Amino acid sequence: MSLFSVNAILILSTDDRSRILTKYYSAPHAPPGCTSQPGSNPYLTVKEQKAFEKGLLEKTNKQTSDVILYDGRVVVFKMEGDVMLYVVGGGDENEIMLFGVVLALRDALAILLKNSTDKRTLIENYDLLTLAVDEIVDDSIILETDPVIIASRVSKPPTQDIASVKNIDLSEQGLLNAWEFGKLKLAERMRQL
Q: Checking phi first, is residue 33 left (phi over 0); if not, alpha (psi -120 to 50) or beta?
């Protein structure tokens, strides 16, 4: 086990076996005294990645468990609607910790997407999806597994914009006032020229 515990996070469609989101991670450096990295990503090309994903989908399509050992890697997964959420770790990683990551991803997406975790919704909200994945795992290091905290970090609007939005009057009279103000300022500028 090492700090760099996640090799990949995959979200694949079960209908047409397409990729929705795939992030493969590699540790930035090898541990001291080790010639090969135990948590490194062996799938360097897109062709190798797609072959791994195809085999993984075939293996997990009819599984009743949530944890398997595939290609020397611990793979935990959850099916949500028409997509499969996978977290891949090294062969010696703690499957309970990896399962916590897949549950955090599932629950955070349920909060952000209002319990509508399907392929179409994920593609329409791809920005929230990628931000949620980045809040959970960064460079193969697990950062957060609380779905409420993840959802709040992803969906929190910038603080400087909140103050300016609160002071805007969007009623009919407020819009008329803004129009009149704009006309006056434009007339002043035209007179100055």
A: left
Digit-coded pLDDT (tens) for 96-122: 999 999 999 999 999 998 888 889 999
Q: For the whole prediction, is pTM greater than 0.85?
A: no
What's the distance, CA 82 to chain centroid?
A: 17
Q: Beta strands of the chain (E only): which ranges?
A: 6-13, 19-24, 67-70, 73-80, 83-89, 137-138, 141-142
Q: Which long-range contacts (CB under 8 A, 24 or more apart) does 142-151 make?
A: 142/5, 142/6, 142/97, 142/100, 142/101, 144/104, 145/100, 145/101, 145/103, 145/104, 146/104, 147/103, 147/104, 147/106, 147/107, 147/108, 147/110, 147/111, 148/111, 150/104, 150/108, 151/108, 151/111, 151/112
For the CA atoms of 82, 87, 90, 95, what is the dihedral angle to 10 degrees?
-100
DSSP state of 26: -
Cα 77 from Cα 106, distance rounded (Å) = 10
